[in-house]
Design a protein that fits this description.
The chain is mostly helical and 336 residues long. It has a two-stranded antiparallel sheet. It is flat.
Length: 336
């Protein structure tokens, strides 16, 4: 057993002034640790979407009727608030778990040697999106589950998934100049796929805001549009995304593309098929809560799948050694 070094006053001062630099100077995670930390943030971003859906589908959206406290007199849910209060408060507590996952990703990225500033910035971007969405979630409660704020809350969660997925991908590649693996025409097709997917998700929030699951047992305003008409538009967009994905797979096979883009496109196509089955079954069975929850999970997985296809179109090797900070530069960074 090696003795634990004593913490001096100077060490304590440095830890308070810049805790991330203090940790980075004393710990170097393996690349696999950084990748797992980034992946944990992705997983928690998806979980918070699913549990947020569970809050709405169990009519627990106003289980805690105020924010940031659960009630005017209590920070936490009380036994008198019953099942709905426990569900809503439990979802609020999961935000702290999400923050812990994002914090772990930031610490691991900052401590990696050499320090990859871009990776750390992606971690901080996640943190600020989480903070913004927490405030927006409070506004959702304070305005009585206004459907427009609920839609914005979900879209910001989708943005969080995008940043987390990007950080996860970047943790598994180098910082060299990106090299395209496919031609311009294929890249344009994928960007059409990305835009169609964004429209699909956005229209899905309108379906939610106009549909029967308002999120609470009390009277909650809905978006004043024909729910079934918007649901049909959502289905049309889904078919467009499926068609673009199939066309992309066919083109990639035709041009003998690398395995990476082909595998990601195949995975996306399978996710879309499963999501489509769930979507049609829930529509014709009058939106049972369990299937709606699975559809929300599918929405997050589809978005991750689309982003992985986009990011698979290029490779980024390790940066040249001349571009990496030397020992003296790293020491300066640790003191910063």
């Amino acid at each position: 057993m090696e003795p634990v070094p004593k913490l001096t006053r100077a060490d304590a001062t440095a830890a308070v002034r810049n805790p991330l630099a203090f940790i980075a100077a004393r710990w170097t995670p393996t690349p696999r640790t950084v990748q797992r930390a980034a992946l944990s943030a992705v997983v928690m971003a998806v979980i918070i979407v699913v549990t947020g859906g569970a809050v709405r589908l169990t009519s627990s959206g106003l289980g805690c009727p105020t924010w940031p406290k659960c009630t005017d007199d209590s920070l936490t849910a009380t036994s008198a608030m019953g099942f709905h209060g426990a569900i809503e408060f439990g979802n609020r507590m999961l935000t702290y778990v999400l923050c812990a996952a994002v914090g772990w990703a930031i610490i691991a990225a900052r401590a990696q040697k050499p320090w990859r500033r871009g990776l750390t910035r992606l971690g901080w971007a996640q943190f600020w999106v989480v903070m913004g969405n927490a405030v927006l979630g409070g506004i959702v409660v304070l305005v009585g589950l206004n459907p427009y704020t609920v839609a914005a809350h979900f879209l910001l969660s989708t943005a969080l998934i995008a940043v987390a997925t990007l950080m996860w991908q970047r943790s598994r590649e180098g910082d060299g100049e990106p090299r395209p693996l496919v031609g311009k025409s294929v890249q344009q097709l994928v960007w059409f796929l990305v835009v169609a997917s964004v429209l699909l998700i956005a229209v899905g929030t309108v379906v939610t805001g106009a549909g029967p699951h308002a999120g609470d047992s009390s009277k909650v305003d809905r978006i004043p549009v024909d729910w079934e008409a918007v649901a049909k538009l959502h289905a049309v967009l889904a078919w467009i995304v499926v068609t673009l994905t199939f066309a992309l797979w066919f083109v990639l096979k035709a041009v003998d593309a690398p395995k990476g883009p082909l595998a990601r496109t195949r995975d996306l196509f399978l996710i879309l098929l499963a999501q489509g089955v769930i979507g049609y079954v829930q529509y014709f069975t009058k939106l049972p809560e369990l299937l709606v929850g699975l559809h929300m999970l599918g929405s997050a997985l589809v978005w991750i799948g689309v982003l992985r296809v986009l990011l698979a179109l290029r490779e980024r090797p390790e940066a040249a050694k001349a571009d990496l900070p030397g020992p003296s530069a790293e020491a300066k960074l640790a003191k910063a």
